[in-house]
TrEMBL record, chain A:
<dbReference type="Pfam" id="PF02780">
    <property type="entry name" value="Transketolase_C"/>
</dbReference>
<protein>
    <submittedName>
        <fullName>Pyruvate dehydrogenase E1 component beta subunit</fullName>
    </submittedName>
</protein>
<dbReference type="InterPro" id="IPR005475">
    <property type="entry name" value="Transketolase-like_Pyr-bd"/>
</dbReference>
<dbReference type="GO" id="GO:0000287">
    <property type="term" value="F:magnesium ion binding"/>
</dbReference>
<keyword id="KW-0786">Thiamine pyrophosphate</keyword>
<dbReference type="GO" id="GO:0016491">
    <property type="term" value="F:oxidoreductase activity"/>
</dbReference>
<feature type="domain" description="Transketolase-like pyrimidine-binding">
    <location>
        <begin position="10"/>
        <end position="185"/>
    </location>
</feature>
<dbReference type="InterPro" id="IPR033248">
    <property type="entry name" value="Transketolase_C"/>
</dbReference>
<dbReference type="InterPro" id="IPR029061">
    <property type="entry name" value="THDP-binding"/>
</dbReference>
From TrEMBL, chain B:
<dbReference type="GO" id="GO:0003863">
    <property type="term" value="F:branched-chain 2-oxo acid dehydrogenase activity"/>
</dbReference>
<dbReference type="Pfam" id="PF00676">
    <property type="entry name" value="E1_dh"/>
</dbReference>
<dbReference type="GO" id="GO:0009083">
    <property type="term" value="P:branched-chain amino acid catabolic process"/>
</dbReference>
<feature type="domain" description="Dehydrogenase E1 component">
    <location>
        <begin position="52"/>
        <end position="317"/>
    </location>
</feature>
<dbReference type="InterPro" id="IPR050771">
    <property type="entry name" value="Alpha-ketoacid_DH_E1_comp"/>
</dbReference>
<keyword id="KW-0560">Oxidoreductase</keyword>
<comment type="function">
    <text>The branched-chain alpha-keto dehydrogenase complex catalyzes the overall conversion of alpha-keto acids to acyl-CoA and CO(2). It contains multiple copies of three enzymatic components: branched-chain alpha-keto acid decarboxylase (E1), lipoamide acyltransferase (E2) and lipoamide dehydrogenase (E3).</text>
</comment>
<keyword id="KW-0786">Thiamine pyrophosphate</keyword>
<dbReference type="InterPro" id="IPR001017">
    <property type="entry name" value="DH_E1"/>
</dbReference>
Amino acid sequence: MAQNDDIQNIPMARAINLGLRQALLDNEKVILMGEDIGTLGGVFRITEGLHAEFGDKRVLDTPLAESGIIGTAIGLAMRGYRPVCEIQFDGFIFPGFDQITSQLAKLTNRYLGSQTFPVVIRVPYGGHIGAVEHHQESPEAYFAHSAGLRLVSPSTPNDGYWMIQEAIASNDPVMFFEPKSRYWPKGEVDFRVPVAGLHTSLVARTGTDVTVVGHGAMVSVLMQAAALAEEEGTSIEVIDLRTLSPLDYDPILESVRKTGRLVVAQEAPENASVGSQIAATIGERAFYSLEAPVLRVSGYDAPFPPAKLESQYLPDADRVLEAVDRVLSY
Amino acid sequence: MSPATPVPQSDPAPVQFLTPAGELVEDAANEEYLPYLNTLDEADYQRFHHDMVMTRYFDEACTNLQRQGQLGLWVPSHGQEGAQVGSAHAAKPQDHIFPSYREHAVGLVRGIDLLGIAALLRGVTHSGWDPNDPKNGNFRLYTLVIGSQALHATGYAMGQQFDGVVGTGSPETDEATMVYFGDGATSQGDVSEAFVFAASYQTPQVFFLQNNQWAISVPVSRQSRTPLYRRGTGFGIPSVQIDGNDVLAGFAVTAKHLDDARAGRGPSLIEALTYRIGAHTTSDDPTKYRGDSEVAGWVARDPITRMEAFLRSRGVGERYFTDLTTEATDFAADIRRRTLALDNPPTDVIFDYVYSEPHAVLDAQAEWFARYENSFEDSAESGQGNN
Ligand SMILES: Cc1ncc(C[n+]2csc(CCOP(=O)(O)OP(=O)(O)O)c2C)c(N)n1
Ligand SMILES: [Mg+2]
C-alpha cells in the first residue's frame, strides 16, 4: 500500500494498520501475534493484509490462549524479537494477566536492566459498540497499577498511526489501548512527522473556564461537551491524555493554573482508577490554583451492564457538563 | 507451516451408529456403547429428531432477528445439533450442565425457555435464565470467556463427590456434571487445569468437546497436532472420539460415560467431530478463511438429514414430518414475537446484584444516579408545562 499523499483522511483502524505495516517494514524483528489476526486480519481488521504481505513468521495466528500469547512473546523478546500482541477484546486479557503483571512488567527489574522486553500489547477497549459481556470494558487501571508497564491510548487516526510505531520502538513493555468505538470515524493522518512524543498529553481544544481531561473515546465526548458548553457561554479546555503511564501532569497543571477547575472523565469505573490518580495528584500539586474540588466522571463501580444500558453507564456529554456545572458553582 | 513429523495415526474410528445416509451400523468401535443405544425406543428417536429440528428453526429465527437489528449478535448452532441433542438427552434430571455459548439445543433439552438466549444476545441481560430454578434443568449460564466454565464444572463435580451423591449405587439420585467447550478452548490453560483437577480428584464428570473444526478463523490444526480426544488420555482421563453429527452416537457414548461418572468411576472426555455450518457469529464472515467445498462436505453429513432418513427407514410417515414443520415454525414465530416484545431493562438494574449485601459506595452511586436520571424527567415535565 503506497502512501502517495503526505496527508490522508482515514479511519483509526486503517491508520493503526498502516502504522503496524510501517513497523514491520522498518524492523525485521517486529512480529505480530494474536487470535485470528492472520488470514482474517483480526476481528476488527486491524491487521488486514499483513499476513498476506509478511507471511507466517511475521504475522502469527496463534492458538487460543492469552497466557500463551503473552508468555511466548516474552520469550521471543528475550531472543531479540519485538512482538506486538493483539488481545481480541478488553475482557479477554485476563487469562494473560499473570504473564503481563508478574512477568512482563517485572522482568526489566529482575534482570537488573541487562535485557529489555519490548513487547507491545494491543487492547481494543471501551464501550459504545453495543456488544455482549466482556466486550466493552476499560481495564486500564489494573495495568497502570503495575510498575514496569507503559500505557498509552490514541484518540485520533493520526495518533493511531504514530503512537503504535512509537510503542513498538519503545524498549519497555507498552500496553496500547485502542478505543474501539473510534476505529471507524475518519481523521487526518500526517505521514511526515509525529505530533508529539508517546508520553505527552495534548491540549485538544483551548478554553479558559474549566479544564476537562480524558483519553481514548472519551476525548470525542469531551469535545462534544465543550461545543455544547460554548453555546451557553462556558469555555472548556480539553486535554487528550494519550498517555496513562507515565501520566503527563505538566499540561494538566498548566491548564488548571489557568482555569482553576478540573473535571476528569473516563469510561472505566471510578474506584482506584487512572482518573482518581489524576484527581489526587492535581489536588496535591495545584491546590492553590484550584477554585473547586477536582471532580471525576466515570463508569459506575458496577460491572459493565448489558448493551441496552450502556448509554446510561457510559459518561456522555450531559454527565460531563453536569460536573462542569458543579465545579463552576464554587 | 507444516508439522516436523506427522503424528502416527493409530486412532480407532470415531464411534458412529448412524452413517450420513442414515443407516444403522454395528461395529467394533461402537460395540461397547450398544447397550446404551438399545435403551432407546421409537419415541426417543423421534424426540431426538424433533429437538434438533426445533433448535434449527430457533437458530434461523434468531439469525433473522439479528439481521433485522433486533439482536445485537447471534451465535449460530447450525450443524451441531446432533452432538448437542444426543449428549443432552444422555444426562439425567439430577445432573448438572455447564454450557459454553453455542449450546442452544442443550438448553432446549434441559427445559430452559430459549427466549433467555435471545434476551442475552439482544443485550437486555447478562443472564437469561435462573439455573437455580428447578424448571431450568440445572443448566448453568452461558460463559463467554473461553474455557472458564471447565474449571467451574470440575469444582462443581468435586462438590458432588464431597457431598456423597456419587457411586452410592442409586442411579436415580447419583449425580454427574457435564461441561461443553470447543476445539479452540482446549488451548486455554483453564481447560488443561480442569483436566488436572478432574483426574486428580476423580470427579464425576464428562468433558464434552465439540470439535467444530474452527475457532473463529483458526483451524483446529493450529490448536492441536494430535486428535483432541488424546489430550484427555495424556491427563489420565479416559477419552473417546465420536461422530458428532450422529445424534445416536452422541446419546449412547455420553450415556455410558455419565453412568461411569455417577457410579464413581471418574471423569472422561468425549470429542464430538462436528462442524459449524454457519458463521462463528453474525459478526463473522467465514468466506474469508474457508472454502465452499469444505462446508459442502459437512452439509452432506448433516445431523438432521441423516436422522430423518433413519426415521423414514423405520416407517415414520410424512404426517410426522409435516406436523413437526408446523410445530417448529410456530415455535420460531413465538420466539420472534416474544423477542420483539422484550423491553429494555429499567436503568437502575445497573446497580442491582453487584453484591449480595449492601455496599456503601455503590449504594451512594445508585442514589446519585437516580437523582441524576430524575433531573431529566423533571426538566422534561417542566418543559412540557411551558408549551
Ligand atoms: C479468553 C477469550 N479469548 C478470546 C475470546 C474471543 N473468542 C470468542 S469465541 C472464540 C473462538 C472459540 O472457538 P471454540 O472454542 O472452538 O468454540 P466455537 O466458537 O467454535 O464453538 C474466540 C477466540 C474469548 N471469548 N475468550
Ligand atoms: Mg470451534
